[in-house]
Design a protein that fits this description.
Blueprint: E1 9-15, E2 23-29, E3 34-39, E4 41-43, E5 46-52, E6 59-67, E7 70-78
Antiparallel strand pairs: 1-5, 2-3, 2-6, 4-5, 6-7
C-alpha cells in the first residue's frame, strides 16, 4: 500500500497463493466506521485497487483487506 502517508490516492496491492473469488478492501476510521469499500481487481494474480483520499480528513485510518478467510489490516496516515 502506498503512499503512506497519503495525500490524494491510496494504492492497494494484495497477493496471495490462493485464488479467492473476491478480494475486498475497506477503509476504516479510528472509531471502526467503514468510510469506503472497494473490490480489488485481479491482474495476473495480484489484486489491485485504490481509494480516493482527497475528501478524507487528516488522520489515521486502517485498510482491512479480506480474501476468503484471510484478513490483513494495514495502518495508513492521511495528510
Amino acid at each position: 500500500m502506498y503512499p503512506n502517508p497519503a495525500t490524494e490516492n491510496i494504492v492497494l496491492t494484495y497477493q496471495t497463493p490462493k485464488r479467492p473469488k473476491v478480494v475486498k478492501a475497506e477503509l476504516v476510521n479510528l472509531l471502526g466506521a467503514v468510510v469506503a469499500t472497494k473490490e480489488l481487481d485481479n491482474q495476473n494474480d495480484i489484486y489491485v485497487g485504490y481509494f480516493d483520499a482527497t475528501a478524507l480528513t487528516s488522520g489515521v485510518f486502517f485498510v482491512r483487506i479480506t480474501a476468503d478467510d484471510a484478513i490483513q489490516l494495514v495502518k495508513v496516515v492521511k495528510n
